[in-house]
Amino acid sequence: MITASPRPRVAILGVGHVGSALARILIDAGYEVDVAASGDPQRIQLIASVVMPGARARWAVDAVAGADIVILAIPLHRFAGLDRSMLDGKLVIDSMNYWAPTDGTQSLFEDPTLTSSEIVQRELPGATVVKTFNHIGYHEMEEDRRPATATGRRALGVASDDPDAASLVASLIQDAGYDTVLVETLRDGVAFEPGGPVFGARLDADAFTAAVNGVLETAELRPSEVAA
Predict the structure, then answer these.
(1) What is the pLDDT of residues 5-54, one digit of tens each?
(2) Is the confidence at residue 182, as pLDDT, over 90?
(3) 36 CB-near residues (< 8 Å, 6+ apart)
(4) Beta-carbon count within 10 A of 32 CB
(5) Is the predicted pLDDT of residue 160 greater than 70, yes or no?
(6) Cβ atoms of 157 and 135 closer than 8 Å
(7) CA 161 – CA 55 distance, rounded (Å)
(8) DSSP letter at 83?
(9) Rounded to two decimals, what is the model's pTM?
(10) 3-state secondary structure of 205
(11) Whole-angstrom Cα distance, residue 91 to residue 144?
(12) Distance between CA 209 and CA 62 in Å, rounded?
């Protein structure tokens, strides 16, 4: 079971467009955020202070050690070289996508029997993986946020094999300005992947749910439920 404080500390691995945008919206929502790249945090301290004001640049191992939630916002091809052991016992958000025409063939992710996030979970056996944030463009993360009272807020999907982890991540997303649609298993996150009807689409919770259910019914997977 995953437990954390009402405002869990977040570590973001990756300080590119996605990682930077996530840091900004989560800091705005009241979360403490550490960011890390592949090396010395001094190398990213200046860019963090300018692009992600309020974020603390740290060594990856230290950022992860102090975090309740870790977000993987690294290019997919760098996952193979990631130190998996530092993520043991952590709730890990997988915001990555595998899209061979863009990323090139990544042998680690070529198993046709598993979704990309199931492969991430397989490679991180000591962690709890939640798939989300992969189906919204980094340039939309800030502009599409809306207060909880707004009607028709954009929805983001959340997939995990751990319902407590999914619920915790859904709360974080809602705090950041989005409604959420939870699916029952990590495998169901196939509906969020590139080429699917919700990938890059601005949909409210009802429309998102209908689109996801259509994919999962076709794939003979389990339907989703809304957690707005």
Answers:
(1) 468 999 999 999 999 999 999 999 999 999 999 889 998 999 899 999 99
(2) yes
(3) 11, 12, 13, 15, 44, 57, 58, 59, 60, 62, 63, 64
(4) 18
(5) yes
(6) yes
(7) 30
(8) -
(9) 0.92
(10) helix
(11) 25
(12) 38
**What are 187's two structure tokens?**
């495998």
Provide the H-helix boundaries in the chain: 17-28, 42-51, 60-65, 100-103, 116-123, 163-176, 205-218
Annotate 44-60 with DSSP letters as a single string. HHHHHHHHSTT-EE--H
Nearest-Å Rg of the Cα atoms of the chain is 16
What length is written for the chain? 228
pLDDT in tens, 86-128: 999 999 999 999 988 877 889 999 998 999 999 999 999 999 9
Residue type, 44: I
**Residue 145 per-residue DSSP state:** -
pLDDT at residue 4, rounded to an integer? 46
Q: Assess contact for 119 and 111: CB atoms under 8 A.
A: yes
Question: Which of 56, 97, 54, 53 is closest to 73 using CA atoms?
Answer: 97
CA pair distance 131, 188, nearest whole angstrom: 10
Which of 135, 133, 128 shows the shortest CA–CA distance to 92?
128
